[in-house]
Amino acid sequence: MVIVVESPVARADIPALCARARCELEDGAGSHLVCDLSGLDEVDAVVVDALARVQLIVRRLGGTLELRGADVDLVALLAWMGLERVLRRVDDPPP
User: Fold this and answer.
1) Is the pLDDT reported for residue 94 higher than 70?
2) Residue 62 included in any domain
3) What is the three-class DSSP state of 64?
4) What does the alpha-carbon distance between residue 9 and residue 48 come to, in Å, rounded to a whole number?
Protein backbone atom coordinates (compact mmCIF):
# COMPACT_ATOMS: atom_id res chain seq x y z
CA MET A 1 0.00 0.00 0.00
CA VAL A 2 1.32 3.41 -0.93
CA ILE A 3 0.29 6.86 0.24
CA VAL A 4 1.59 9.78 -1.82
CA VAL A 5 2.55 12.88 0.17
CA GLU A 6 2.94 16.09 -1.82
CA SER A 7 3.78 19.71 -1.02
CA PRO A 8 2.63 21.73 0.66
CA VAL A 9 1.97 19.91 3.94
CA ALA A 10 0.27 22.09 6.54
CA ARG A 11 -0.59 21.21 10.13
CA ALA A 12 -4.24 21.15 9.09
CA ASP A 13 -3.41 18.33 6.62
CA ILE A 14 -2.04 15.97 9.28
CA PRO A 15 -5.37 14.51 10.50
CA ALA A 16 -6.42 13.64 6.93
CA LEU A 17 -3.06 12.02 6.22
CA CYS A 18 -3.34 9.96 9.40
CA ALA A 19 -6.91 8.96 8.50
CA ARG A 20 -5.73 7.78 5.07
CA ALA A 21 -3.02 5.67 6.68
CA ARG A 22 -5.50 4.17 9.15
CA CYS A 23 -7.99 3.38 6.36
CA GLU A 24 -5.34 1.70 4.25
CA LEU A 25 -4.28 -0.58 7.09
CA GLU A 26 -7.75 -1.25 8.48
CA ASP A 27 -9.07 -2.24 5.05
CA GLY A 28 -7.04 -5.41 5.47
CA ALA A 29 -4.96 -5.03 2.32
CA GLY A 30 -1.80 -5.64 4.35
CA SER A 31 0.26 -4.34 7.20
CA HIS A 32 3.01 -2.60 5.27
CA LEU A 33 2.60 1.04 4.27
CA VAL A 34 4.91 3.09 2.07
CA CYS A 35 4.82 6.90 2.02
CA ASP A 36 5.95 8.16 -1.37
CA LEU A 37 7.60 11.49 -0.67
CA SER A 38 8.93 12.24 -4.14
CA GLY A 39 6.25 14.93 -4.56
CA LEU A 40 7.55 17.02 -1.66
CA ASP A 41 9.13 20.25 -2.85
CA GLU A 42 9.70 21.65 0.63
CA VAL A 43 10.43 19.81 3.85
CA ASP A 44 10.11 21.22 7.33
CA ALA A 45 9.16 20.25 10.85
CA VAL A 46 5.50 19.95 9.83
CA VAL A 47 6.38 17.22 7.32
CA VAL A 48 8.40 15.39 9.96
CA ASP A 49 5.53 15.75 12.45
CA ALA A 50 3.09 14.32 9.90
CA LEU A 51 5.34 11.36 9.16
CA ALA A 52 5.93 10.68 12.86
CA ARG A 53 2.19 10.69 13.52
CA VAL A 54 1.56 8.32 10.62
CA GLN A 55 4.30 6.07 12.01
CA LEU A 56 2.55 5.98 15.40
CA ILE A 57 -0.74 4.95 13.80
CA VAL A 58 0.92 2.28 11.68
CA ARG A 59 2.74 0.80 14.68
CA ARG A 60 -0.41 0.85 16.83
CA LEU A 61 -2.14 -1.16 14.12
CA GLY A 62 0.75 -3.65 14.03
CA GLY A 63 2.13 -2.53 10.69
CA THR A 64 5.35 -1.17 9.29
CA LEU A 65 6.05 2.12 7.54
CA GLU A 66 8.76 2.92 5.03
CA LEU A 67 9.54 6.18 3.29
CA ARG A 68 10.20 6.27 -0.44
CA GLY A 69 11.65 9.19 -2.37
CA ALA A 70 12.94 11.16 0.61
CA ASP A 71 15.29 13.85 -0.66
CA VAL A 72 18.58 14.77 1.01
CA ASP A 73 17.01 17.70 2.88
CA LEU A 74 14.40 15.45 4.50
CA VAL A 75 17.00 12.81 5.32
CA ALA A 76 19.16 15.48 6.97
CA LEU A 77 16.19 16.90 8.89
CA LEU A 78 15.20 13.43 10.14
CA ALA A 79 18.77 12.85 11.30
CA TRP A 80 18.95 16.26 12.97
CA MET A 81 15.69 15.53 14.83
CA GLY A 82 16.94 12.07 15.85
CA LEU A 83 14.28 10.22 13.85
CA GLU A 84 16.34 8.55 11.14
CA ARG A 85 15.94 5.14 12.82
CA VAL A 86 12.27 5.61 13.64
CA LEU A 87 11.25 6.73 10.16
CA ARG A 88 13.00 4.23 7.94
CA ARG A 89 13.58 4.83 4.26
CA VAL A 90 13.00 2.06 1.72
CA ASP A 91 16.68 2.04 0.77
CA ASP A 92 17.85 1.80 4.41
CA PRO A 93 18.97 -1.55 5.79
CA PRO A 94 16.50 -3.19 8.17
CA PRO A 95 16.90 -2.32 11.87
Assistant:
1) no
2) yes
3) strand
4) 10
